[in-house]
Amino acid sequence: MSHSTSTGVVTWPADIAADYRAKGYWEDRTLGEMISAVADEYPDREALVDGDVRMSYAELADRADAAAARLRDLGFEPDDRLLVQLANGWQFVALTLACFRAGVIPVMALPSHRRYELTHLASLSESRGIAVPDVLRDFDHQALAHELVAELADLDVVLVSGTPRHGAVNLDEILALPDDGTERQLLRRRVDEWNPDPDAPACFLISGGTTGLPKLITRTHNDYVCNIRATTAVAELDENDIYLVALPAGHNFPLACPGILGALLAGAKTVMLPSPEPVRAFTTIAAEGVTISAAVPAVAQQWIENQARTGGNQLESLRVLQVGGSRLPDEYAARVGSVLHCTLQQVFGMAEGLINATRLDDPTDVICTTQGRPVCDADEIRILDPAGADVPDGEPGALYTRGPYTPRGYYNAPEHNARSFLDGGWYGSGDVVVRRPDGNLVVHGRDKDMINRAGEKISAEEIESLVYRLPGVELTAAVAMPDPALGERVCLYLVPQEGRSFDLDEVRDHLTGLGIAKYKLPERLQIVSSIPTTKVGKLDKKALREDIATQLSHSQ
Ligand code: OOB
Fold first, then answer.
1. 46: in domain
2. Has the ipTM of the complex gone over 0.90?
3. How many domains does the chain have?
4. 470-475: which pairs have CB atoms within 8 A and are 24 or more residues apart?
5. Most CB contacts within 10 A, which of 328, 386, 420, 514?
């Protein structure tokens, strides 16, 4: 039932690890102990706001400790995995901290994931438990969790925020605050003794994915703390800040760049919202005095358009808007300052590690037309041509990186690691970038088979492999089509077998039946009699992207 070691975790070479340690990039402290120390320093400060729920640092830390002990009592052991699929709310934060304290590894799924993704993530991570909302946006997460428990050998505990059924555990009881002060102190002492190894994984993040199925990224306490520290410094976030979480909290960006964990390590306040919808977001920003938030370009665009339409001074407290996850069009970059009246920080990051960002005092041209530079001075980057030679500044090439918070491999994925990492541990992000002479990167495009829909990454291969399960498909290719609101959407090219016809609804129903997340569903179907191929015989996706872009521009 338990796993004594994280065998599938790829570690940094010993000499490099020693160097990161000696230079202070790795502090050898766990996220749990660091946040407990902050709570000791600022017990009465407000840490977390979620609607009517307001929690001090002391209360949050006490709830996390109590929950850590209760997870142990339920049978969770250090290095056990817990698949976390919770909406943005205080429970997400308290449970994540509880896992850190107990040495249990949260696997950060998204509320939009469905049977297909959760089955894969639970089995790949060998999760012992799954934490879900009950029914959320008309979807019965609890029912699905029970089905997964019935099907997966390792998975046996369902934690539900809401009304548990069929022997599920009530998450709100797990996270309850013991009312007795002495008990709280005893728990604190008990949990302090479990402090995990700082080189052990703190959490598993999900890769954007270019392969058929998503990969898991192991983030150790040492590396994640380094990531958080560096992004906190460049966002100039301190204890006076109020950080708004509007993106799904399990994403690296709102979780740790600097995100929720950065706000907690700084002694700042975090405000949770279930969605970035502008009317509610603006009301919350005004009511709570939010100073900093993170958005994907699609959300930044909505905020800009909403503010331009309504005017008003609801955003007065907002100091910084971080924008990343996909390329922010330059015209919107300029409007963050002129319409939202805050400083834009472009963030070009990845769950696999490396974070680039513009600095708050950079010249306007850097802030508005580049995606910034690495946040940590131990980050190393190389930009290579197809033959593997470094390209000069000003010329596009493929981005490779390594550093103190960029893990050297995905979890349990040796074959895939051999393809994604070069000798010397360089991770190839699949992005095509140009480095300017001032060191800032501009993302020109990508060399990976993925669709970036409003910052959510969709693997073309994953969609295609599922479409092939539909009888009568001769050939199919999923490609990105440009979209003014979301950046990109999925367009599916399909060659039917003789005598067969398809429409978009049939394809979408088929995929929905297989249990994939809705955001991955194709939004346009192009029925064609053939698909062009490249010289080496691969489907020519570039030609397809150009074809759909041309068709869309003509139909406007
Ligand atoms: C963030 O992380 P992921 O893992 O969902 O996606 C990483 C990929 C990058 O390789 C790149 O293709 C794309 O997303 N990307 C951007 C971008 N930021 C990310 N492409 C162009 N411009 C940008 N600013 O997306 C992520 C993780 C941490 C912080 C911010 C974003």
1. no
2. yes
3. 3
4. 470/502, 470/506, 470/507, 470/510, 471/500, 472/496, 472/497, 472/500, 472/502, 473/497, 473/502, 475/530, 475/531, 475/539
5. 328
